[in-house]
Amino acid sequence: MPKNKLQKFERVRHLPNVILAEETTAPSLQAFPWNQPRYAGMQRVLELGCGKGEHSLAFAAASPQKLCVGVDYKSHRMCVGAEMALARGLGNVHFLRTRVERIRAFFPSHSIDEIWLTFPDPLWKNRKSMQRLTAGPFLDDYANLLVPGGSVHLKTDSRRFFQFSCESVQRRGGRVTAMSENLYDGGPDSPDPSEAVSAYERAALTRGAAICYLEFTLNSRHPDPSY
What we know:
The protein is an alpha/beta fold.
């Protein structure tokens, strides 16, 4: 393992804005800072698969009334964003090391206003289709976490994954509220691209990739029990 990764693994363990969740431990919701009274009344935003947390940092800086939590399993990447948040004095952003499959264990039901999926791995091997972050089981988790009317946002440079996600949302009875097959084409459904742009996104744009964007809402229960 590269030396700088080992250094980050050690540093991240001591950062006050990072929670390293052990998979063998059953967490208590009250133990996590985002569930404490000091954040009561704040809108909550999750970035799942956050990497270095570039979107979480941008959201927290732009909206002090929002509490942002970046979630990833690779703590050496998370270390970069967490240290940057401390350096910038951003007290409304935290980071959680855990697998997305366990996300319900860390947040109360119907407590999240927005969920962001920023360039998740498309996982194109067929045996991994249910591990894609817009597959049915994950959509069920998001529906459980979101407040009524809360939304999920997806950014991807994979057209196939974008199509898979659209179909998955439709099968679950979700409602697409904004869509763009090229985020930077200036179309009517395109959000402001200057809000948050990660290093990965810049690299994709440099090689000429189109950035797809999807925003959708989910019913708390799927209308088809066989789904």
